[in-house]
Known about the structure:
By secondary structure, chain A is an all-alpha fold. Chain A is built from eight helices and no strands.
Amino acid sequence: MSRQSEPIEAIFQRLRHGPGREESYRLLFNRFYWPLFRFFEHRGFSTEECQDLIQETFLRVYRGIGAFRGEARWEHWLFRIAANTAVKAVRHRTAAKRAGHDVPLEDQDPGEAPAPLRQLLGKEMRETLSQAVAGLPAQMQRCVRLRVFQDLDYDEIAEILQISPSTVKVQLFKARKRLRLELGNSFEDFDL
Amino acid sequence: MDEKRTHLKAALRELTAEESADIGPHAGLKRLIAYRRRTLPPAEREALQEHLSLCPRCAGLLLELRDFEAASTRDEAPGPESLQQEAWESLVRHLPWKVSAIRSIAGDGRRDVPRPRRLRYFVYGAAAALLLLAVGLAMMTSRRASVSPRDSAPRTAAVLERERDLQKRLEEKEAELAAARKRIQGLEKLETRVAELTSTLAELRRSRPAPERRDQIADASREIEVAVAPRFELRGQEAPGSGFLQGGGAVNPVRMEAGRFTVALSLADHPVHGEYRLALVDRDGKTLWTGRRPSRSLLGDAGTTVSVSRLSPGLYRLRIEGLQQGSRELLAEYILEVV
């Protein structure tokens, strides 16, 4: 039988009100194992750690299923548990590091990005640029920031701002045009 | 020239980094989920978009949420099955299945079975206290008895009276202790019996005939039986995405002849609600009939009967809801197709 053939709500309902809880629990595990694996892997955990964190997540699901009040979607509830489990694991790792335990280099939290170069802009240049950006409409400013500051592609920006990718493209095109018009004397490359 | 060409982007990065230095607290997953579900008020939505444009962490979390949702609807395993199997086997070793077999994990405030263990501990505690008291009294009595008449003052009548009183109390406590021991034996027998019954119940549930395949649509007579929760015994499954089912319950299309029909509902083995509400709704959501049943009338195997007549051909939805202290919980929905 296909993994997706049964609505997730029906599986959770059976898990809450059993009998057949074990079977429902297995279905749930099969359904969310790989999404959870990818989630933890994306956060930089090793395969072994991913396995442990998935186990921890499902144990929390098992313990917390009775407390779930049905206000959120099941997937979101599960995602919150997974995100909290990941945060807890990172804290644990940090505490281990502080306590002097060995933590492999590749396991360390990448942390914040390096601070930008503060001396790049002169005061006058900064004010000119700041005014030009502040003059853009709010949505356009956000597109620029997400594109330049967070290095996101059109689809990702669209997802975050809940607009279409073509709208993002248009917004960035217009921003480029306006900035070129206002800052043409000071800057040259307007490829955003 | 090259230096100038990269200048704007780097300058914008620097400017944004400065702005992002005081963006305030992170959005929080609950708020991000509400944003994704588009349930935030416009002003809050606007503020959050502003925050997201300056906060890589919250924006990243939102994208992770999107990826998670997308991955959970895909039907392929993107990695080795052995890894998944290994994780499952490890997980199972940590699960208290034996406990779950006798106690609901639903956490609905009621328990499926009595809890003799707690009572037993209470009786053990009481018995231990009685035993200590008895030993103390016995020691006190023997110490008094061992005092030589030559070394002590002549016993007064009051002391003798006190000794007799203590002796009497000791005997009483010993009798209570014996009774408590007897009760413990009774409770142990009861606990064994509960375990046996639980095991039998689990066996019966396992041997229950499997429900019909969900993709079948049953041709029913004018009388159908609907077993509601916990497993929503199904007689068929409407194609997903048809949009007809609006609640979160099970779909159960049952084809029947036009005219009067009878639905026999069996709510046995279902989490008990104070009252049940049954409603027949047409395709447009218009309620054609509603009825309520108190829980006592639904307990047991007999169930209850609902009769509705003069139904024209078409699809109808039978909703079954549990009512409890002002709240309403949808237990199941069944699609009835009158032909």
